[in-house]
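The methods section describes the discrete structure representation at length, but only in general terms. The central task, working out the structure tokens from the amino acid sequence alone, is never made concrete. Nothing conveys this as quickly as seeing an actual entry. For illustration, here is how one protein appears when written out as sequence plus structure tokens:
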Amino acid sequence: MKLVIFSDMDGTLLDSNYSFKDAEKALDLIKKKKIALVLSSSKTRAELEFYRKKMRNKHPFIVENGGAIFIPKNYFSRNFKYISMNNYKVIEIGTYYPKLRRALSKLKETFPEIKGFGDMSIKELADDCGLTLEEAELAKKREYDEAFKMKKENWGKAKKMIKELRFYYTEGGRYYHILGKNDKGKAVKILTKLYKQEFKKIKTVSLGDSENDVPMFKNTDSHFRVKGPKDWNKIVLNLLNNQL
């Protein structure tokens, strides 16, 4: 049986300093047991490529709250519909970023305090997120989701307006997000089907920490809400040592 672990990043596999050091024991065991670790995040493709390189992760990954699935070429032997992009076979689910920016501009007419990633300079974003300039530059390379901040007391009215504009929203650990008809759950469902075609028998597990992870939770065999990489490490080690 093939085990596939879908994991959120911020507040889950990464701590407040964007480090996964506290999860390294579990990550090493995942590699040893040849388990598929699929990163599923609100982060951009560029950001996840950065972390995948650090982790030596060569599995598919889900970007920008299910906006698209990036699958390394030759990863699956069976055919499926995709578009080619660099060294990936890509399944696009979300709405393209320029449309989301236009919708956010309409929101700003009512809520002028809104500030999206596209409104911030690299330095502003780095300061706001606690990122390095290099990391902030990667975070701005958005394709299917716009992250933004606004006054919490106005969020209820903003959600209604987003619906009226025929877009969707979710809440991450740090920012609100406007997006198309996509979420992590839809991406997980598609990728799970591909894994089943390839391996026949699989077991899926998901780990996350916030509201935007709930659709992912609903589309895996089991799920865990975690509180950072130390908790992630403990749960995954327990899972691998006792259930496999």
The chain has a mean pLDDT of 95. Residues 125 and 131 are 8 Å apart (CA to CA).
